[in-house]
Amino acid sequence: MISLDHLIELATAHKVPVTAVASIILITLINRLFFSNHLNSEEAAKKGVSTSRVFQWDPFYGLDMVYSQVKALKNDYYLDWLRRLHQNRPKTFSINFFGIRQICTIESENLKAIQATNFKDFGLEPMRRKTKGAMPFADKGISTTDGKNWEFARFLVKPFFYREVYASIDRVRPYVDRFMALLPEEDGVEFDAQPLIQRWFLDLTSEFIFGESMNSMDHPDRADITWSMLTVLRGGRLRIQFYRFLWAFNWNWWLEAVYKVHDFVNVHIRSTYAEIEERKRLISEGKEVGPERTDLLWFMASNVPEEEELRSQLCLVFVPNNDTTSIFISNCLWHLARHPEAWKKLREEVAACGTEQPTFESLRRMTYLNGVMNETHRLTPNNVVQVRAALNDSTLPVGGGPHGKLPMQVRKGDLVSVTKTVMYRDPDIWGPDADEFHPERHDGLRGTWDFLPFGGGPRRCPAQMMVQTEAGYMLFRMAQKFSRIESRDSAPYTPVMRIGPSNKTGTKIALYK
């Protein structure tokens, strides 16, 4: 079938009148829509697989859906927009988004399919790398590639998996000590905990990634780079979603932030390369050298000799990683400040541990502490939507047929979007109180595909254990010191989308010893 781009090219070359071109395009689109749907239905019928579709005012490119999503992101009601999208609809359905079929689902069997059982049929590269939406910020990396490129990127983050790293309380303790010392000394003083938590995590993670801490808790001006990183994340999300219209917008605000992040990272990369070369020289001369650095950048630089690729790989770890854990802890405190009974139970569990410092193992055994963290993941997940592009024709286990119980056909090029923020509030899974904060609901629950905040399958988050250790230790220390935590913000949670949602008004609280 002739493509629209080729049709327009021919019409332009032969000076066909504009009205005629418009008519031809309209007929072509209708023809494509009709025959595509007819053929797909025939194929689906042969396979015993049905499709499910939602009515849209623009059936060709789905611009009505695009416009409403842009509006939701711009006006900070994206999570509500997602909930309304799924409201009164089957648990799996399809929409047209920029002319691409997007399958929206909240069924755990389908999540398992794209992340595990049919893993090789679904990927990220068509959306994130091939579209050039992330360029010039990054190209190859753990969150933009598939296949061999992804396997290599996964290898480069191997230090996240070292037990001596993720299980080390000694690594986290000095930074939590400094954080606690910077909290208001007097009881009942209102403050926003979110910026301080952001600086705490920047100091902690910069030591792990670069081998030296930024010490931004003592020097707040050093944390200015975080604002550039947040701009990169927000702009990157928009560029990847609306890559077909990059030419239509002014991206200077985003590019400015990208170059600031690059300048920051380049300093560390070049000094690390220089240190590696100096070490090689000393060894070749038979001279004694000290132990190698153990930070992530050293490991990456030792395996990636080309600066631009190393910067891409590093940026796709450092920039998203810096936002997620700090926002997660801020969200934990946001919920706890509104539920004094939960804070009381957490303190009781902490008090039962005595005066000894917790270990990685003891933190994992704390039922209520882990319930608080899991309930925060459930109600305010960092990973709001899990999207994959179909690399091959495939199927989803459920969503097809008149009752949505049959397998569903997926064509190469389709997008599958698992809306976790809706799945995690599904009353069929969580009961009639699904919108309420109850850490107890996680007692005795084992990891299932209904609730995997760090994902599952080969692409599950490599930092899972590290995040849980860092957040768990921080909450333990705060509950150990403060008898009460109060919310000083009556506004509902208003999500500003970065890599995930962050409350628009921060985490305004008051603490009492």
Automatic annotation (TrEMBL):
GO terms for molecular function: heme binding; iron ion binding; oxidoreductase activity, acting on paired donors, with incorporation or reduction of molecular oxygen, reduced flavin or flavoprotein as one donor, and incorporation of one atom of oxygen. Its main location: membrane. InterPro entries: Cyt_P450, Cyt_P450_CS, Cyt_P450_E_CYP52_ascomycetes, Cyt_P450_E_CYP52_fungi, Cyt_P450_sf. Keywords: Heme, Iron, Membrane, Metal-binding, Monooxygenase, Oxidoreductase, Transmembrane, Transmembrane helix. One of its GO terms (cellular component) is membrane. Its cofactor is heme. It is found in: Membrane. It is a single-pass membrane protein. Belongs to the cytochrome P450 family. This is Cytochrome P450. It comes from Fusarium avenaceum.
